[in-house]
Amino acid sequence: MVTRGFLAGRGRDRLSGDDRLALDQAVVDIKQLPARRTLVRAGDVVEQSTMLLEGFMCRYMDDRDGFRQLVAVHVPGDFVDLHAFPMRRLDHDVATLSACTVAVVPHEALSDITNERPALTRALWFSTLLDAAMHREWIFRLGRLGAEGRLAHFFMETATRMRMVGLVENDRFHLPLTQADIAEACGLTGVHVNRTLRSLREQELMTFSHGEVKILDPKRMTAIGEFEPAYLYGDPR
């Protein structure tokens, strides 16, 4: 199934086979997108939503001086801009971080789903509420944690989400982000991120090199980042 990553590890198994098939059939196109391409600009009227199949995407906002703040990083299986279905437009930009494969679902098809499939509709609603839960956690991270805590939290959250879709092996996963991307997600300067990553490496907590993350001490990383994964609403192990 094209949409097999949707809510993987977070309730997908509770969807009926018919609902999974209906979501697959709502896909009208699969696109290959290059890295660093903006798909949606704030204020644009949007008539379709995008599910990320491979790669990494983000939602972001620019300040008056053009500096970017990432407000979400998306991993495979995420419905990136599902919010645009009821809202018609977004108040932020959506872009690729790496080369991506995406599935395109027109809002007309989503309307049919909401009219005919209540269980699948609740799953789509659940997906947007997960985004809201992560936004709240990101606010906590930026407001209450120091640099090491912010990075530890970011990497542990990403590791957990990647594990849900089967993309973590031996606490190692691919993350083709730059240090500048991480700085923009964690509210830090690039220089501060570089120093903090070095500190985490020297403490033998994690490594991040050439787009590869290795969590060396998950327990200590969890403690430093005050990371409590309940807000990700994963399935019980």
Whole-Å distance between the termini?
24 Å
How many helices? The count is 8
Query: Ranges with pLDDT <50 over ≥5 residues?
Result: none
- Quaternary state of the chains: single chain
Strands in their spatial order, largest beta sheet: 2-6-4-5
Average residue pLDDT: 97
Order of helices and strands: HEEEEEHEEHHHEHHEEH
Question: How would a textbook summarize the main sheet?
Answer: 4 strands, antiparallel
The portion of residues forming beta strands comes to 15-25%
Beta-strand segment tally: 10
Quick overview:
With 237 residues, this protein is α+β, with helices and mostly antiparallel strands. Helix content is 41%, strand content 21%.
Mind explaining what this structure looks like?
The chain is of the alpha+beta class and 237 residues long. 41% of the residues lie in helices and 21% in strands. The protein contains eight helices and ten strands. Helix 5 packs across helix 7 (190-202). The longest helix has 27 residues, at 118-144. The protein is globular. The two termini are 24 Å apart.
Supply database-style keywords.
237 residues, 4-stranded antiparallel beta sheet
Chart the SSEs and their pairings.
Blueprint: H1 17-25, E1 29-33, E2 38-40, E3 48-54, E4 57-62, E5 68-74, H2 84-87, E6 93-96, E7 100-106, H3 107-116, H4 118-144, H5 147-164, E8 172-174, H6 179-186, H7 190-202, E9 206-209, E10 212-215, H8 218-224
Antiparallel strand pairs: 1-7, 2-6, 3-7, 4-5, 4-6, 8-10, 9-10
